[in-house]
Amino acid sequence: MKPILVCGPSGSGKSTYIQKLAGEIGGPVYGFVTRKEDDGHIYLYAAGDKERQMGETNRIGDLISTEKRLARPHPEVFDGLGLALLSDIPSGALVLMDELGILESDALAFQARVLEVLQGPYRVLAALKDRDTPFLNAVRELGEIVNVQCTMKEKTALQFSII
Fold first, then answer.
1. How distant, in Å, are the alpha carbons of 64, 85, 89, 113, 137 from that of 130?
2. DSSP letters spanning 47-89
3. Is 125 helix (H, G, I), strand (E, B) or coil?
4. CA 142 to CA 125: how far, in whole Å?
5. How high does pLDDT run on average in the chain?
6. What phi, psi does 93 have (nearest 5°)?
7. Burial of 24 by CB count in 10 Å (0-12 exposed, 13-18 middle, 19+ buried)?
8. What is the CA radius of gyration of the chain?
9. What span, in angstroms and rounded, lies between the C-alpha atoms of 91 and 122?
10. What is the pLDDT of residues 95-108, one digit of tens each?
């Protein structure tokens, strides 16, 4: 299976779509999910983690402005925990990367591992922010991937198109 990259703006349904695909594929899931929590921070969790404990060791960003969607990143968490969550993955395993965005812009080891996983012997489902950064552009420019574009249409109808 070619890696599937779901791209789109915040709130367009990228995470919902890849979670649905992961459920249909079934089996153990490796990788990570990121979530903005009510405490004003953004956290990194193991893909299959149901308990989702919040703390300094998995906090990847501190919201500065919710209106402008600005956050102060913690690249050391990506290069530590993020790298660990993308390591020791069995060949052929399902890997979720939800989501790749701008907070990891200075996490060079993490970025390199993401690119390795996308080109490795895995079944990858990834959500990408629709931002223009060298890292996200490198992800989009990989060969042998399936790009799915998510768009909000009239804020009520979700539309997906494969590009």
1. 20, 23, 27, 21, 10
2. TT-SS---SGGGEEEEEEETTTTEEEE-HHHIIIIIHHHTSSP
3. strand
4. 14
5. 89
6. -70, 155
7. exposed
8. 15
9. 6
10. 999 999 999 999 99
Band the pLDDT of 11: cuts 50, 70, 90: confident
Q: Is the pTM of this model over 0.85?
A: yes
C-beta neighbour count of 35 within 10 angstroms: 15
Q: What is the pLDDT of residues 48-94, one digit of tens each?
A: 888 889 999 999 999 887 665 678 999 999 999 999 999 999 999 99
State CA 97 to chain mean position distance: 4
CATH of domain 4-162: 3.40.50.300
Residue type, 148: V
Q: What angle do CA 51, 62, 96 make, to 5 degrees?
A: 45
In the prediction, which pLDDT does 152 show? 66
Which helix (H) or strand (E) element contains residue 42? strand 41-46
**In 2-159, which ranges are continuous DSSP H helix?**
14-25, 75-77, 83-85, 108-118, 134-140
Domain ranges of the chain: 4-162
